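Chain A, query sequence.
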Amino acid sequence: MEKLNKKQIEELLPHREPMLLIDELYDIKKLKSATAVLNVKKDSFFVNGHFPGQPVMPGVLIVESFGQAAAALTAHGLDKSTYENKLVFLMSVEKARFRNPVIPICKLELKIEAIRSHGRVWKYKGDAFVDNTKVADAIWSATIVDRK
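Chain A, predicted structure.
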C-alpha cells in the first residue's frame, strides 16, 4: 500500500505550517481515491480561539483538509510537469455537513474520492471520521491554475 508522509506531501502542495492540514496520505488509488490523516493536537493553531476551554476544529478547516487531501491525491497522480508551477484552488463547496465536533486530541481520517474531472476542473467527495464515527462529509470542486 502506497503511503505519503508529511515531507512528501510538502513536495506536492504549497501549504506549510500552520496551514498544512494533512499529516499523511495512504491507501492511494491513482487519481481516484485516498485516505488522509490529520492529527488534531491540543496545541493546534485554532485551539486557543475556537473555543477557549472547549476547543473544536472549525468546519471550514475540515473542508480545507478535504481540499488539501484531494490536491495531494491529484498532484501525486499527475506527471510532475503537469502540476509543476501550478496551484490548486477551491472553486465551490456544493454540500458540507458537520455531524459531530472534532475535538483535540484525535486522529481525523479523511476518505476522499475524485468523482469527475474535466480539463483543469476536478470534483471530489469526502467523508471524515474520528474513531470510525463520521464527523463530516462534503462535495467540492477545485481547479488547477498557473502560479503567477
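The helical segments are 6-12, 59-77, 80-83. The chain has a mean pLDDT of 95.
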